[in-house]
């Protein structure tokens, strides 16, 4: 049961991250469309990329906290 719960939590994390990435892309496109300054356009693009990387990092950290501990135990039988 905990494996199913972990998969659901992972899917929720991925969906949340996808939404945030879409927001970053939309914001960058709006900023590029409303400005004529090439430097501001480059800055907007860089902020978008930075935000995407941060979102992906947060997603990995969040997924790492999900689910049961996966430990491997070996026993020696003689």
Describe the structure.
The chain has 78 residues and is mainly α. It has one domain (2-64). Helices cover 77% and strands 0% of the residues. The protein is built from two helices and no strands. α1 (2-34) runs antiparallel to α2 (38-64). It is elongated. The two termini are 34 Å apart. The mean pLDDT is 79.
Identify the overall geometry.
elongated
Which blocks of ≥5 consecutive residues have pLDDT under 50? none
**Which structural class is indicated by helix and strand composition?**
mainly alpha
Q: What's the tally of helices? A: 2
Residue share in helix: over 70%
Structurally, the number of domains stands at 1
Estimated share of beta-strand residues: under 5%
User: Order of helices and strands, N to C?
Assistant: HH
Termini Cα gap: 34 Å
The largest sheet, given as strand count, sense and whether it forms a barrel, is: none
Arithmetic mean of pLDDT: 79
Radius of gyration: 20 Å
Number of strands: 0
Short description:
With 78 residues, the chain is mostly helical. It has two helices and no strands. The chain has helices spanning 2-34, 38-64.
Topology:
Elements: H1 2-34, H2 38-64
Helix pairs in contact: 1-2
Biased composition (Basic and acidic residues): 1-10, 18-78
Protein name: Protein LE25
Region (Disordered): 1-78
